[in-house]
Design goal:
Strand content: over 45%
Shape: globular
Structural class: mainly beta
Number of helices: 1
Largest sheet: 11 strands, antiparallel
Strand order of the largest sheet: 1-2-3-4-7-8-11-12-15-16-19
Number of strands: 19
Amino acid sequence: MPAQTPAPAPAPAPAAQGGSVQGRVTAAYGEPLWGVTVSARGTKMPLLDQYLTATDPADPAFPRTPELLWQNEAGLKLGGSWYALAAVAYWMQIENFPSQDARVDPVTGDTRFVTVYAGKARTLGLELEGAVQPVKWFRGQGMLTLQDPRYTEFNEGANDFTGNRIRRIPQVIGDLTGTFMFGNASLGINWSYVGHRFSNNANTVDLPGFGQFNVRAGYTYENVTLDLQLFNALNSIGLTEGNPRVDESLGAVPDIFLARPVLPRRLMLSLTARL
């Protein structure tokens, strides 16, 4: 009977790291104005998701450390009888996160799944929110997010994507809603906007920004509410995400673009009962 090759000894388990630390400071600057500062640093739990795509402990790419997260925020809130305003600046970093893609060999057409533990990425941003109700029959709300999401350390094979924007994350997000109230009836008009994004890590495939109008009419009788909602009222065209694996513009048919479009104009009728 031929001798059997012994199975390789399992690699040592990654050492426990991190923990979680969070701090918060809140200060009031008179009755209508107050501020808050939050800092949190820890590891992502559970860590099992890192091992779902890593099957060979002897592989140098096998994860040895957990995902590390660090988040810092500082904000101000201002409020009165008919208005409320808030501004929050934030900085977030994630380190050692898994990034898996299906890669197609341009010569053979073979597909293989590749997992990369991508170093670091950070997002620096500002979020503004406001709400006003100057009269009894009208309320307005708005939100604007400005951010810069980037890879600060990211290599995939021979490709260095350090400094590139994180794929599929916009730099600008906006939302405006006006609601008119007439007794038990209400009419709301909403506009939402998602800014320009890149579909892939190389930042060569553009996803243009797009906006949508939505309309809602509702009526409440005692504990029952009837809603009629019209989504994407102007039938806007937009792409929510594209194919991160292939830049079709470099292929033989550059006019074909793989992406997931927003849904067209549609109506939804709903009945809600609060028991």
